[in-house]
Design brief:
Elements: E1 2-7, E2 17-22, E3 28-30, E4 44-48, E5 56-60, H1 65-74, E6 82-86, H2 94-105, E7 110-115, H3 120-123, E8 132-136, E9 143-145, H4 158-168, E10 173-180, H5 186-199, E11 204-209, H6 222-233, E12 239-241, H7 245-249
Parallel strand pairs: 1-4, 2-6, 6-7, 7-8, 8-10, 10-11, 11-12
Antiparallel strand pairs: 1-2, 3-9, 4-5
Length: 252
């Protein structure tokens, strides 16, 4: 979808220089998704022309690894702390993600995989080539599978996320991002940290208040968020409350 230079806007590495490589296609439909253009494969890829300019050129897809590396070098690749492989859902294309991770990592930056945390089998071939696995833990109150009906209750994601978490436990760094909206139910979130405590207790849990967009029009209150931090930290060692900072400054 696109290759550009920015800073990490969310999670424990917020503010660090990051080159983003965004893959197209996703099999989930999140009510707060801010990039629905990534749901389908893209015919063309945007590449930032120079670091920090926001000027882009386009190339037809598929983009070769050589072309992606050339675009990254034009953006001063070695000056970045991280390369973020994001989406969409990158693990729908695991062979391409593994090849990109190997190539970018060899040039210096650490590799951060941003994933919806459901494709456990696809992770196996990618995991040796990444430094940080940042997985979402989706709540059925706000997220549907592409195959789910448009209305009514849907099955939760807990078992699939726990299986992914177990597969990702060998990562050098493991981050679990839980987006909190006004619809997020207490019992859903209690189940998240219960399963995290059982499967990967050393992982970092990031509670991220939703940035209102899409079908979600309001953020949870500060009182609600702080109460959740207290409850989660009674079960887990590393709980953090971090909003989307790139939205605050209007950056990509």
């Amino acid at each position: 979808m696109e290759i550009f230079s920015s800073v990490q806007g969310e999670g424990p590495h917020v503010g660090e220089t990051t080159l983003f490589v965004r893959f197209g296609e996703c099999d989930l439909r999140c009510g707060w998704c801010d990039s629905p253009q990534t749901w389908r494969p893209a015919r063309r890829c945007r590449m930032e022309e120079a670091r920090g300019t926001g000027r882009f050129r386009e190339r037809p897809n598929p983009v070769s690894l050589a072309d992606a590396l050339a675009a990254a070098e034009a953006l001063e690749l070695p000056a970045h702390r991280f390369v973020s492989l994001t989406g969409g859902e990158p693990l729908l294309q695991p062979e391409a993600v593994a090849a990109f991770a190997r190539a970018f990592r060899a040039r210096g930056p650490r590799i951060l995989l941003e994933t919806h945390g459901l494709a456990a089998e696809a992770l196996a071939g990618v995991l040796p080539h990444v430094d940080v696995v940042s997985m979402d833990w989706k709540l059925a109150s706000d997220v549907r599978r592409e195959s789910d009906p448009a209305h009514g209750p849907v099955p939760d994601f807990h078992a699939a996320h726990e299986a992914f978490l177990a597969a990702a436990a060998g990562a050098p760094e493991l981050v679990i991002k839980l987006i909190v909206t006004p619809a997020s139910a207490d019992e859903e979130m209690e189940e998240v940290w219960r399963r995290v405590a059982k499967t990967a207790p050393e992982a970092t849990l990031v509670l991220q208040p939703v940035t209102p967009t899409g079908r979600v029009r309001e953020a949870p209150s500060a009182e609600r968020l702080l109460a959740l931090v207290v409850r989660a930290s009674r079960v887990l060692r590393d709980v953090r409350l971090i909003p989307q900072t790139h939205k605050t400054i209007g950056a990509l």
